[in-house]
Amino acid sequence: MDSNIQPFGKRFQKSLLGIMLGTALASGPVLADTLRVAGNFATDHSSSLAMEVFKQEVETATDNDIKVHLFPAMQLGGASENVDQVRSGVLSMTWIGVSFLSRTVPELEAVSLPFVLKDRETAFRVIDGEVGDLLNDKLAEKGFVALGFMELGARHITNSVRPIESIEDFDGLKIRLQPNETHLKSFRALGASPVSMGINEVYSALQQKVIDGQENPFSIIRKNNFGEVQQYLTDTNHFFDFIVVVANKRKFDRMSDDEQQVLRDAMTKAVAWQREKAAEEDSLSRDELIAAGMKFNAVTPELHQAMQDKTAGIVEELKDRLGAELVDAVLDGAKS
Description:
By secondary structure, the chain is of the alpha/beta class. Helices cover 47% and strands 17% of the residues.
């Protein structure tokens, strides 16, 4: 863990917490003093390490009256299962790529517009502003409390057929994507044949040539060893993706105000730590993929413009499906 990360001071005395918990118990059910938190990212991914920061902060602030048990790397199922487990209350929380939550909360697709969030500074300005507030409201309607948005990162394409140097090179490529309708429609517009698939199936599908390629941030490509079964790497930067940390709303609402604030403060610290770490990891991962033998080609301005032109209709389609307010908030935030 980063030596610069220091725990928060105690928020309140253990005895006071005990009195509050006792009072709550007398009036009805309360959140258990153990938080079970699952995710599908590898144990050494920056988001999983950030959740260790969260755990340390919560346990220190409550003098271990609230214990956090972390289950990274799909220990309690894949992303879709974790979403269902949090919604039902089997799990207290999960940290997850927003696309896997978009089936339950479609409004999350608004931050998946192609080529809109051009860099991490733009992305964070959007998600930390009005857009984040609007999404939090939509998540709450479906039984979730959003505690923070981490960086998953800019997404790039790998494949084993040909380098992507022109718009025609997308034609017919079977590319694995996340289960996000905006992502899938964007790749259909580019001329590819997108396939929705869980991350745990991708390596074998690439190895067996069931699919030609996939798209992910550099760090995910490296950590899943996709370079072993893929030849070409292209820095398309077509979407910027987030990891959202959500809690079961019923359980969270039964916590005391002080307990809720402890969780929010701890997550603020964890998100800030992760975003900084993810930026370092992104650049390092790209260099390591190239050093390991992947053939890298940078997208030219001409190809970038052609991809934008091909996917331009996605914005209006999303406005029709989700409503203009949220999509316009994303577009306005990205221009600021």
